[in-house]
Amino acid sequence: MYSLIDIQKKLLPDLLAVMQKRYHILEYINQMQPVGRRSLAVSLGLTERVLRSEVDFLKTQDLITVASLGMSVTEDGRKLLVELRSIMREISGIVKMEQQLADKLGIQRAIIVSGNADEAPWVKNELGRATAQWMKSSLHGENIIGVTGGTTMSTVAKMLTPTKPDQNWLFVPARGGIGEDVKNQANTICSQMAENTDSKHRVLYAPDEVSKEMYESMIKDPNFTEVLHLIKSACMVLHGIGDAITMAERRKTSSENVKKLIAANAVGEAFGYYFNEAGEIVHKIQTVGLQLADLTAIQHVLAVAGGGSKAKAIAAYMKRAPKSTILITDEGAANQLLKG
């Protein structure tokens, strides 16, 4: 039997196209408000004439307000967006794409949010929101959550809200990160996550890359080994997936090693491991904290990465990821991954 949406797709495809367009305009205004018309037109790839018509309609329906500072979504507009999100996922075929992507990558589940993080900055917020919602729905009782650094994890932290009464969380950095931009260090992100969820956190004072001698010296400190034990005991790990060369440059990797990565066709990075398109490890840095092999013993592994430009990095890492992995990504990356 056809669903109502299937019938509309066959008999009223233009109606659904208009609905999707207006939804995306309303969602973008909601994420970027207050936003000007010209900026909105450029971001959405629409002419100002077309956008003006749509903005006038949304204003007439009391879904947005227009002021000198820009456009903003009204309370009615916000309520409508909440109700529309699940409907739009079905209309756009995202629900079906999620199953196809999980099957293709051989992982537990894929969660796809609308948009492409390469083109619209608000999509990264949606990745963070989807991650926060999954955490809230999956974790009960006392839980240790390991978190890596990076801009995506920083966005996840912003989207977290206070835990429920039956949730008691402890955030720990999954690996060292001193030396990176402070706001993107795992220690900083754990602190933000704990603050936003009314939880606790621990810190790991260790650089992103260490020598063997430094590591052996550090493990003599009981405080250090205690945090390492907590990290290994995590029931959930949140991590990003990086473009190989971008991550190497962020770590201030020597030009010699960058050349080696390029020669080895490295495309992705996670946990200090660099992968080529076949998923082979072509380089590894000595890091403190979780290693790739540790992930198989962790119940919930959430990999968060979006944007079509990340597709090769995601595909490469997923060839090594544990089967329990849940990938949270966007349409931009998902479409590229499904095309292969």
TrEMBL record:
InterPro entries: CggR_N (IPR048715), NagB/RpiA_transferase-like (IPR037171), SorC_transcr_regulators (IPR051054), Sugar-bd_dom_put (IPR007324), WH-like_DNA-bd_sf (IPR036388), WH_DNA-bd_sf (IPR036390). Keywords: DNA-binding, Transcription, Transcription regulation. Residues 18-88 form the CggR N-terminal DNA binding domain. The keyword Transcription applies. GO terms for molecular function: carbohydrate binding; DNA binding. SUPFAM superfamilies: NagB/RpiA/CoA transferase-like, Winged helix' DNA-binding domain. Residues 90-339 form the Sugar-binding domain. Transmembrane segments: none annotated. Pfam families: CggR_N, Sugar-bind. Belongs to the SorC transcriptional regulatory family. This is Sugar-binding domain-containing protein. It comes from Bacillus mesophilum.
